[in-house]
């Protein structure tokens, strides 16, 4: 049942993104910022945590999950380090995902053979 919940929650988040692309004039960059910001806000309000418990990777893999991870990192760092945690918590929480994206993007750039679209 965990797989089913992850599938439909992640799919629903993707449907929302696709509807924003198809039905609005928002650029993909603005939609990405909207998703990350939504994850931060929902995490701060305590709404996204239960969704992560319910859906697992269906809620953590989309961009809203990245925003939630940033907000959780800041929350935990503020508890441990007080004011300084505001600046370090998000960086610590998002470091693994950001590093993986940079590394695999670099590997893909080395392997790919770029060419014109014509």
From TrEMBL:
Keyword check for Signal: no
Domain of life: Bacteria
Record field: transmembrane: 6-21, 33-63, 83-112
UniProt KW keywords: Membrane, Transmembrane, Transmembrane helix
PANTHER family hit by this protein: STAGE V SPORULATION PROTEIN AC-RELATED, STAGE V SPORULATION PROTEIN AEB
Species of provenance: Candidatus Acutalibacter pullicola
InterPro entries documented for this protein: Spore_V_AE, SpoVA
Protein's name in the database: Stage V sporulation protein AE
């Amino acid at each position: 049942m965990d797989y089913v919940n992850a599938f439909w929650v992640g799919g629903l988040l993707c449907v929302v993104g696709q509807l924003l692309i198809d039905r609005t004039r928002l650029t993909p960059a603005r939609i990405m910022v909207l998703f990350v910001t939504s994850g931060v806000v929902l995490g701060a309000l305590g709404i996204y945590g239960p969704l992560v418990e319910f859906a697992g990777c269906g809620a953590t893999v989309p961009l809203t999950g990245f925003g939630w991870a940033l907000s959780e990192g800041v929350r935990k760092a503020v508890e441990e380090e007080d004011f300084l945690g505001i600046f370090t918590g998000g960086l610590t929480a998002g470091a693994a995902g950001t590093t993986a994206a940079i590394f695999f993007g670099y590997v893909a750039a080395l392997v790919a053979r770029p060419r014109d679209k014509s």
